[in-house]
Structure formats: structure tokens, C-alpha cells
Amino acid sequence: MVDTKELELPDTTYVRDIENRVFQGIVLQSLAEIPGICPIEGNFIDSFLGRQEGVKGIHTEQDPESHSVSIKVDVNVAYGVSIPQKADEIQAKITEDVTKMTGLHVAQVHVVFKGLILPESQKKQNILQLDTKQCCNKPV
Question: What's the total number of domains in the chain?
């Protein structure tokens, strides 16, 4: 006979790996829904085709211990847009989308405003109504 107390099995461990590209795709989609900003140039298609590792201007770091992720996003902002309000909007949208899609806690969303898109560029492309897929203006 076998004593069942000697056969203690360890608890099942569930592992969920999410690649950085997944987080970058979620962040890009979130940014596409926010008017008045554009991600830094460098394009998702190049990274998707393997010509560039990751998406330029979107950096993620996962902490498997706490089941959380920290995100840093570089963006350009249209002239006349309130930077504090836009930062709040970006942070809230990214946090909501990443949490909803991955189930992970978003520990931090660090938004870095890298450039300013001048009114002349806005008129050419009507930046305040464009999504990030169409935003190709050079910042100052």
C-alpha cells in the first residue's frame, strides 16, 4: 500500500506569456483613438515584417511576480492641445485597454511628449481629427 500523504503534488502553475509586440499593438490601437497626438515615427508595418525590433516609441516591461506591466510611450502633440489633459487621456485609455485585453495590472504609463506639431502641419493634414495611422507630420 502507498501512503497518500507521501504523494503530495505541487499546485498547478499557470503561465501566460505575452510578447512585447502584443502590448505595442494594443498601445498603438489605443493611441489611434486619441485625437491631437501621433506616435513617434517608425512604423508598425516595419516592425511586424521584422525590419525593426518592436515599435519605435513604445516600450514595455513585464513583472511576472506581480502580474503587471509598465509602459513608456513617446508621442508628438499638436500645437494648442493641453499636455496635462492629453497625458491623462492617454494614460487612462492605455491602462483600460491593456488591462481589459491582457488581464494584467498596469503599474505605470509614462508618457513622453517628444515633439510639437505646428499649426501649418495641422492645416495640411487636419491633425486634430486624424488617427495615428495617418499622422506623418514631422515634429519641431
Answer: 1
Of the chain, the percentage scoring pLDDT greater than 90 comes to 54
Rounded-to-integer distance, Cα 19 and Cα 32, Å = 21
Q: How far apart are CA 125 and CA 137, in angstroms?
A: 8
Band (11; pLDDT cuts 50, 70, 90): confident
Q: How far is Cα 118 from Cα 77, in angstroms, rounded to an integer?
A: 9
**pLDDT, tens digit, 9 for 90 and up, residues 65-90:** 898 999 999 999 999 999 999 999 99
One-letter amino acid identity for 112? V
The CATH number linked to 17 is 3.30.70.1350
CB atoms under 10 Å from CB of 115, counted, come to 16
Please provide residue 25's backbone torsions phi and psi, each rounded to the nearest 5 degrees. Answer: -65, -40
